[in-house]
Amino acid sequence: MSIMAYNGASIVAMKGKGCVAIAADRRFGSQQLTISTDFQKVFAINDRLMYGMAGLGTDVQTLSERFRMKTNLYKLREERDIEPKTFAHLVSSTLYEKRFGPYFIEPIVAGLDKNGEPFICSADLIGCLNFAKDFCVAGTASQNLYGMCETVWREDLEPEELFEATSQALLNAVDRDCLSGWGAVVHIITADRIITRTLKGRMD
Amino acid sequence: MAVQFDGGVIIGADSRTTTGSYIANRVTDKLTMVHDRVYCCRSGSAADTQAVADIVHYYCQMFDVQNGEAPPVKVVASMFQEICYQNKDGLMAGIIVAGWDKKVGGGSVYNISLGGSMNKQPFAIGGSGSTYIYGYCDASYHENMTVTECIEFTKNAIALAMSRDGSSGGCIRLAVITEQGVQRIFVPGNELPTFFEG
After folding, report:
1. ipTM of the shown complex
2. Which residue, A84, A134, A167, A186, has most beta carbons within 10 Å?
């Protein structure tokens, strides 16, 4: 079995009007066995920038700590918050550093830049960036997510509509995947604040 | 899984079929009739178990016509065993045979594992999800359970397995097999018994 599918995870991010959404499932398993249903895969850097990682659980945890360290040092040196695009490049270089012994994760970055413009971006396990204008998907249900996102996404969705679209895309995609699901967390990043909702989906 | 009670058997299964990690069918019927009062629960390769069940269904019909009576559950289980054992190299099939017959005057459950061994048991569990519920089943089962208790036991056990095992899920299909006939029960995903979910 693929090492990227060992623990199971699914992440999706979508662009809206003056807002972005990033959502992830909550399962942590060992192949078919579900170990926990509250595993964190999306992390916040500040109140306008979040990122999620799908793939091997240990690398998700290790990298979240490494990114926390790097962004804290950035803030101390630059005396300002890191921009989403800059953080995306930071993720890319961190991953490419390990080109011949990579971290087994697929990250997705979502946030608002200093002008309030929505930004989303995904990368592969060795740091190739993909700046999407609509949505980004990652994880064991990525193919299902592509289909769902193409169906529900439209341009200029308002925060509440974006929440609905993201939730439906994630929930229905993971329901066709044995390795992700068991709950979901959806974050909507708007100019004022981050709205976080935990969804109870199918627990099978 | 299948549970024997005084007067018949309860059989139950989840409804998930997977190809790799993709759920190809989330409403599968894994309870297959091989004769009027004899059903089998299929686990392992879907193609293998469907093919074997079709062949046994044919043999059961031949038995019925040639002997003028329905095949006893033990005989049906032997038919499954013969096919599974002789073709053990090419098959991946874990089958539970359960039903009612006149000779026994009640229910019988037979478990046929991967290699083709056949064991008569008061209750049997199988499939990838079964590994997670051995403890629950051993702790909950007791002799002389009523039909209602058996249904609760089966429903709870399957729900627990569905909660932990990635290859199990969807809805629960149950069937009560008695002298009177086969009564099917359907439990949709949103009506499953819930337990501790971490």
Report:
1. 0.86
2. A84
